[in-house]
């Protein structure tokens, strides 16, 4: 019991003793460049060593508190950190050595550092405007390299499918938070970002319409370099992806709109047949009804 009390006091002193460093919204700046805030103290007795692997529950958010990755949905076996691997400057690696099992800490880290050090990838488009990313972790286990290797082998033998549709929705949410905070999905799951209105003729089944449209990925990259024009009888099967067909049917002559179409109403779990649009990819379309006959 005395050992645990001493351990708790040591942890408190560790976090409080750094108050002379720069503060940011209740976070303390570490000399390595990241910010941290203690959320709760665990009941573990030992700090990890360099040859250990840490198993965390983790939640990653943009600075507007929009969750884009968490272990509950994206890595159900946990978020693993190998302390023996070299850490990028500005990562919170050094602080992990000071934690015990059960500790919960919130970190603020530069996006490039977070994604390079812990995902070995570049910063996704939806996070590039953020100066810092919030990483909330709870240390569940401190395990050896041998235990980690065994766990990975077992995981490889399991048929575990990532919830890619959830990841897609999280990406859409991040985009909306940064660009269209008030927009919500309609009854079909389509996000109407912008729209103009007229009192002219409505699109209807059997009417010949002429529409211009241009599609893009959420990072702004265009699907086609130029705006496309199409004329067809509305209601004719397979003329447009399902999401566009739904939205066109709600418009009138002269009206324009900008929308996000989720993948299930676009190219779905397989992507486009020519491979230009990957599976589970939401798309942004701008379109205008030019004429109705």
Total individual domains: 2
Percent of residues in helices? 10-25%
Stretches where pLDDT is under 50 for at least 5 consecutive residues are 1-21, 157-161
What is the makeup of the main sheet? 8 strands, antiparallel
Please tell me about this protein's structure.
By secondary structure, the chain is α+β, with helices and mostly antiparallel strands. The chain has helices at 2-16, 93-96, 111-118, 145-156, 164-179, 242-248; strands at residues 23-24, 27-29, 35-40, 52-61, 67-70, 79-82, 104-109, 133-144, 191-195, 208-216, 228-233, 256-261, 283-292. The chain is built from six helices and 13 strands. The protein is elongated and about 75 Å long. The termini are far apart. The model is unreliable at 1-21 and 157-161 (pLDDT under 50).
Give a quick rundown of the structure.
The protein has helices spanning 2-16, 93-96, 111-118, 145-156, 164-179, 242-248, and strands at residues 23-24, 27-29, 35-40, 52-61, 67-70, 79-82, 104-109, 133-144, 191-195, 208-216, 228-233, 256-261, 283-292.
Describe the secondary-structure layout:
Blueprint: H1 2-16, E1 23-24, E2 27-29, E3 35-40, E4 52-61, E5 67-70, E6 79-82, H2 93-96, E7 104-109, H3 111-118, E8 133-144, H4 145-156, H5 164-179, E9 191-195, E10 208-216, E11 228-233, H6 242-248, E12 256-261, E13 283-292
Antiparallel strand pairs: 1-2, 2-3, 3-7, 4-5, 4-6, 4-8, 7-8, 9-12, 10-11, 10-13, 12-13
List its salient traits.
293 residues; alpha+beta; Chitinase A, domain 3; 2 domains; 8-stranded antiparallel sheet; 6 helices; 28% strand; elongated; disordered N terminus
């Amino acid at each position: 019991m005395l050992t645990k009390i001493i351990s708790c006091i040591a942890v408190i002193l560790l976090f409080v003793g750094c108050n002379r460093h720069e503060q940011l919204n209740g976070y303390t700046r570490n000399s390595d460049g990241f910010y941290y805030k203690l959320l709760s103290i665990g009941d573990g007795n030992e700090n990890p060593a360099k040859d250990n692997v840490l198993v965390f529950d983790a939640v990653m958010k943009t600075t507007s508190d929009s969750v884009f990755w968490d272990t509950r949905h994206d890595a159900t076996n946990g978020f693993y950190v190998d302390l023996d691997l070299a850490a990028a400057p500005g990562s919170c690696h050094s602080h992990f050595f000071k934690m015990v099992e059960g500790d919960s800490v919130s970190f603020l880290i530069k996006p490039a550092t977070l994604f390079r050090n812990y995902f070995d990838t570049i910063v996704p488009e939806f996070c590039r405007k953020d100066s810092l990313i919030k990483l909330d972790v709870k240390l569940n286990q401190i395990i050896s390299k041998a235990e980690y290797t065994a766990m990975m082998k077992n995981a490889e033998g399991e048929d575990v499918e990532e919830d890619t549709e959830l990841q897609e929705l999280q990406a859409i949410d991040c985009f909306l938070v940064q660009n269209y905070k008030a927009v919500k999905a309609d009854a079909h799951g389509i996000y109407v970002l912008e729209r103009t209105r007229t009192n002219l003729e409505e699109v209807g089944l059997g009417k010949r319409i002429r529409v211009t449209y241009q599609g893009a990925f959420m990072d702004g990259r265009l699907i086609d370099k130029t705006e496309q024009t199409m004329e067809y009888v509305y209601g004719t099967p397979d003329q447009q992806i399902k999401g566009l067909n739904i939205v066109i049917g709600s418009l009138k002559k002269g009206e324009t709109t900008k929308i996000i179409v989720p993948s299930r109403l676009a190219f779905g779990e397989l992507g486009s047949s020519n491979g230009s649009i990957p599976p589970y990819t939401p798309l942004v379309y701008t379109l205008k009804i030019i004429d109705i006959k």
